[in-house]
Amino acid sequence: MIFICDKTKLQDAIAIAQKAITGKSTMPILEGLYIEANKNTLTLIGSDKDVSIETKLEADVLKEGKIVVDAKIFGEIIRKLPNSEVKIETLENNSIQISCEKSVFNLVHMNSEEFPGLPQINENIIFGIPQNLLRNMIKGTSFAVAQDETRPILQGILFEVENSKLNLVALDGYRLALKSELIDTNNTINAVIPGKTLNEVAKILEDNECVVSITFTTNHILFNLGNTKVISRLLEGEFIKYNALLPQDYKLLVTVDKQAIQNGIERASLMAKDGNSNLIKFDINDDAIVITSNSQLGKVREEVSANMQGEGMQIAFNSKYLLDVLKNMEDGEVEMELTSSISPCIIKNKNAENSKYLVLPVRLVK
Amino acid sequence: MIFICDKTKLQDAIAIAQKAITGKSTMPILEGLYIEANKNTLTLIGSDKDVSIETKLEADVLKEGKIVVDAKIFGEIIRKLPNSEVKIETLENNSIQISCEKSVFNLVHMNSEEFPGLPQINENIIFGIPQNLLRNMIKGTSFAVAQDETRPILQGILFEVENSKLNLVALDGYRLALKSELIDTNNTINAVIPGKTLNEVAKILEDNECVVSITFTTNHILFNLGNTKVISRLLEGEFIKYNALLPQDYKLLVTVDKQAIQNGIERASLMAKDGNSNLIKFDINDDAIVITSNSQLGKVREEVSANMQGEGMQIAFNSKYLLDVLKNMEDGEVEMELTSSISPCIIKNKNAENSKYLVLPVRLVK
What we know:
- The structure is a homodimer of 366-residue chains.
- By secondary structure, the first copy, chain A, is an alpha+beta fold.
- Chain A has six helices and 26 strands.
- In chain A, a hairpin with a 3-residue loop joins strand 16 (220-224) and strand 17.
- The interface between A and B is medium-sized, with 30 and 30 residues.
């Protein structure tokens, strides 16, 4: 194998493929980056047991071939090279030579035959969605993915397609996040994708409206971004029927400026850190939310102006769960739908229908 | 005690005084921030056993007094408040109330009588030096301070004043850093200040030419920045006679572009990490430095153009020590003075006399 390519383009491609390489595998070959030079195109693949990422770039291929190199050291070498043309060629005794200006590296390589390669997927696109939109949907739900391993299905995000709508849903025992967007498809899909994989996908998705095409198979999802494909396995099992968790009605609607309530909760939570309870109390009355908290360190009282429709109410929360939600919402006014001090609270943007969050209150011992 | 002051100014002052509060003391009072309100001035003091920092700011003092509050939580509260006026007043039962717009915090305070206060120092200024110059001198030497505790005096930086010149010197068993500047004084000083303290001082020094005035006593150094004073204890004992370590002569003078040699060493060291030896070899000949290194991973060859005066030479180094030096030097050409493969190497800026670095080579087993 012999090829010449631009250092910066190669570096960018390595950074993409490397996102699949966690270094946590017990198989040494999965710490490797697969490189194939073929017809003026380089194909790089990184892989672990859950996810594979393939990306392509142009190169001047003088001799075709394929190898696997240690991704970490190879990535570091390329990153540190001058911004110039890089020549890579295989030598005898299982090594490659990397040359760039006056730098010459010799690096051992692994056997490309041992590399598992990509799962075979017949691309049958279900729908396309702008990259920035999907990125926002992932970021707006992934914080609610369960961190503990007692219910593996909750470590994933549900991709639900029905009635030309894509819903992403994540939940743990304390909160739920739902983001929705209209898409152009007549298909119906219900698949759960590991949250960790989606966080890596979100890093690759660009902040523009170029479309990412999505294919589902029985066991996999494929994101096609053009030069880059990400394939993740699906989580096995049935996701929780989340619709049954969302209250259909409420008794008190509170409208409040997002930044004002977020700042108030952040300050109140300074006093709530003691013993990690994060407990803050809301007293909602007279068109204001009074937030209080106290601990051994002292106490705090915050007042935030709000618009109320319904009877006043007292309710307590874990401040962390409210902040996770608010930090992921857009600026502007948010609505809180409340029923009682022991019922779930729904939080939405006042002027956008595409997000819905649920946070359970903390039941206070009287 | 009752006072009103600007939130941002208070926050900035807390950040300065907090740099002395390491949280590593066994005395709880030293986790506290001392606050004294007196004649429209607030005085804040943070302290640990090695260093004390006092800073002053304007305030509208309605009732004089002094307290000590937990520095960490107090700092977090002030930081999170709106950018507005803050009112702080003592209440009964050992607490203070912090009010700002619609936020009210109650926080317990400690007894100000228990606070050790500043060491009494009769300010008798020895010399003044622009803040940015002193900051660069500290940054340019502190990396060479010994990390291990076997010789406590080497955990400090020598401040040596003689012949109207200030020298800062740090060294461990492997390298030495010397920075010099002319100053206006006839005094002679030889004092060693803990490196950790100086790193904190460097963070407070601003990037401008305002003068910091320096006073020495038998046991302390005082940096007076105007509104802020930093007092550090001196390390006991005699510093190493560093001049005896610096070779007076050399056989080979190599002049090389700083960035080019630094980049070459950085790349070569990628292959030298194996086993943490960081070993790289220089072959200096024909107006070029060829840097090589190898490990189980592979090998590397870098070539850097240089100007040579003297016979060619081979010499090996720990790449980390060379990089520490080069990262702290200004861009441009650097000179390396070499005598043999087992003699110290001196590194200087070609066009500036104010820095001198010594790095010991690694002796290769033939």
